[in-house]
């Protein structure tokens, strides 16, 4: 399987108000009440049978506007470099993304969704229902993110956040009094 290639065919497209990647919310939680649609290829409409009974769905898509692949990234929550597989950064080797969105209604081959953090025109490769019985977990560990407070996540998760210098207590600006006499 290593090095195997797979071909995904788009089954639809996301329509959303987000046209600028730098202004698109970073996660669905930062896109509360943002509305959009998934316009499914009519050939797949039959597959929507019974989906209307679910409040939330997973939308799997391709990061079609991201060409770069990086194995080390600086996630939005921190100024520390992390492995791409320990983040949700879009510069992944296979450009596969997903979002959990609220499903508000279905009209024919159009799914009306909310909490949309996906760029307009993004190709959709799959849709699955969110099922609390199977998808909710107890005793979850969230790795390095457990060290990030909710306040920090809320502040840094907003687009337009330009970063801040994280000053660790052991690191500070040198003052003249810290310099050896020979350097003064």
How does this model look, in words?
The protein has 184 residues and is mainly β. The chain has a single domain, classed as Beta Barrel (Elongation Factor Tu (Ef-tu), domain 3). The chain is 6% helix and 24% strand. It contains 2 helices and 8 strands. It has helices spanning 132-135, 150-156, and strands at 12-15, 35-40, 56-62, 72-73, 82-83, 96-107, 110-114, 123-129. The chain has a 6-stranded antiparallel β-barrel. A two-stranded antiparallel sheet has the order 4-5. The protein is globular and about 45 Å long. It starts with 11 loop residues before the first strand and ends in a 28-residue tail after the last helix. The model is unreliable at 165-184 (pLDDT under 50).
Give the DSSP E fraction (strand runs of 2 or more residues): 15-25%
What is the SS-derived class?
A: mainly beta
DSSP strand tally: 8
Relative helix content: under 10%
Instruction: Report the order of strands and helices.
Output: EEEEEEEEHH
The residue ranges in which pLDDT falls below 50 over 5 or more consecutive positions are 165-184
Order of strands across the main sheet: 1-2-7-6-3-8
């Amino acid at each position: 399987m290593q090095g195997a290639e797979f071909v995904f065919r788009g089954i639809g497209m996301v329509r959303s108000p987000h046209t600028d990647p730098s202004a698109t919310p970073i996660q669905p939680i930062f896109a509360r009440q943002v509305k959009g649609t998934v316009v499914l290829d009519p050939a797949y409409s039959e597959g929507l049978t019974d989906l209307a009974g679910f409040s939330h769905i997973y939308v799997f898509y391709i990061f079609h506007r991201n060409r770069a692949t990086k194995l080390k990234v600086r996630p939005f929550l921190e100024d520390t470099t992390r492995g791409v597989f320990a983040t949700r950064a879009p510069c992944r080797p296979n450009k596969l993304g997903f979002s959990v969105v609220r499903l508000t209604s279905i009209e024919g081959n159009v799914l009306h969704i909310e909490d949309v953090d996906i760029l307009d025109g993004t190709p959709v490769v799959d849709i699955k229902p969110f099922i609390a019985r199977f998808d909710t977990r107890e005793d979850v560990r969230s790795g390095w993110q457990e060290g990030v407070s909710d306040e920090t996540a809320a502040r840094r998760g907003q687009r337009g956040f330009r970063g801040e210098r994280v000053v660790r207590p052991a690191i500070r600006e040198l003052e003249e009094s810290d310099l050896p006499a020979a350097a003064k």
